[in-house]
């Protein structure tokens, strides 16, 4: 029997706070809902859990599981490419690596493509059409202007905020892949606006992957790494500094495999509804799966905690 208490540490703490704020009701009983991302011994998502295979107890007393239903939380991927002055000779490597990244994704993942120079602009709007996505990547042409790395982040964050303000829903996992360089950048935004954008991206549970290529051989120089390194860390993404852009041919497909795994896990979750036997705050909650050889995570919103 697989149990979660405190990976549960963080997960259960989240369960407690949400239950206290917004209990729902079935008939005269309070109910509690939680999301399970379960995997079998081979690491494959499990989507066919039965009610008698989930145990949600409080203080050792089992509650009734009244419903289990699919809970899809897809990845929504944006690829941003630095096509500025230092990227002219590397664009071929960018394209090869990004095509490999796209091939690694499940077919239902939506992808958009952005160019960073001379200002952030959408080359391909969100689509699942792989032919359009690859054409968008191939259509990015070198520009003599400086890349707008910080501007790309601010405008991406604004779009996320606008989407949330319209829908009031967190119904996808935003993922941003930035293929950039350490070329000097210009920005139309103040430092406070950039900081605010980065904070919102973390709050929105965005995951950011960055590659940073340099021609000088000095890694992590310039303004972009100072922004990108803490952002990738704070969003549980990944940052790689490259002295040779040919490494992108294998690195970007690795990013694609990471993103595909994130999508497959979160797209194949289930929402469990438990009818509580006792009213009031949750008391010593414990969630278990009775089917052998399963592992996974519990959350209140379906998002990974790391």
Task: State the main characteristics.
single chain, 306 residues, alpha+beta, Rossmann fold, six-stranded antiparallel beta sheet, six-stranded mixed beta sheet, 7 helices, 16 strands, elongated, disordered N terminus
Description:
By secondary structure, this protein is an alpha+beta fold. The protein has 2 domains: 2-68 and 271-299, no CATH class; 75-264, 3-Layer(aba) Sandwich (Rossmann fold). 33% of the residues lie in helices and 30% in strands. It has 7 helices and 16 strands. Strands 2, 3, 4, 7, 14 and 16 form a 6-stranded antiparallel β-sheet that branches. A 6-stranded mixed β-sheet has the order 10-9-8-11-12-13, sandwiched between helices. Helix 2 (91-103) runs antiparallel to helix 3 (130-139). The two termini are 24 Å apart. The model is unreliable at 1-28 (pLDDT under 50).
Q: Briefly, what is this?
A:
This protein is α+β, with helices and mostly antiparallel strands and 306 residues long.
């Amino acid at each position: 029997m697989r149990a979660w208490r405190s990976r549960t540490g963080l997960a259960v703490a989240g369960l407690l706070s949400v239950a206290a704020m917004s209990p729902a009701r079935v008939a005269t009983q309070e109910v509690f809902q939680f999301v399970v991302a379960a995997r079998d011994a081979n690491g494959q998502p499990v989507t066919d859990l039965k009610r008698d295979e989930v145990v949600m107890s409080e203080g050792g007393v089992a509650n009734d599981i009244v419903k289990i239903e699919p809970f899809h939380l897809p990845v929504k991927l944006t690829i941003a490419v630095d096509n500025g002055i230092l990227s002219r000779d590397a664009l071929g490597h960018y394209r090869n690596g990004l095509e490999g990244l796209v091939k690694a994704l499940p077919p239902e993942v939506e992808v958009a493509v952005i160019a960073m120079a001379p200002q952030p602009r959408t080359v391909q709007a969100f689509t699942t059409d792989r032919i359009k996505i690859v054409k968008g990547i191939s259509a990015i042409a070198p520009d003599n202007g400086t890349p707008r790395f910080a501007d790309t982040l601010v405008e991406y964050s604004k779009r996320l905020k606008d989407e949330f303000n319209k829908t009031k829903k967190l119904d996808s996992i935003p993922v941003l892949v930035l293929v950039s360089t350490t070329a000097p950048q210009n920005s139309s935004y103040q430092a406070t606006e950039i900081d605010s954008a980065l904070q919102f991206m973390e709050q929105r549970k965005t995951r950011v992957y960055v590659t940073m290529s340099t021609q000088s051989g000095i890694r992590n120089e310039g303004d972009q790494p100072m922004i990108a390194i803490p952002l990738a860390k704070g969003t549980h993404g990944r940052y790689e500094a490259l002295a040779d852009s040919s490494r992108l041919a294998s690195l970007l497909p690795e990013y694609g495999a990471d993103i595909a795994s994130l999508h497959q896990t979160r797209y194949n979750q289930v929402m469990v509804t438990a009818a509580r036997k006792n009213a009031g705050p949750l008391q010593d909650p414990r969630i278990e799966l009775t089917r052998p050889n399963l592992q996974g995570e519990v959350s209140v919103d379906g998002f990974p905690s790391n």
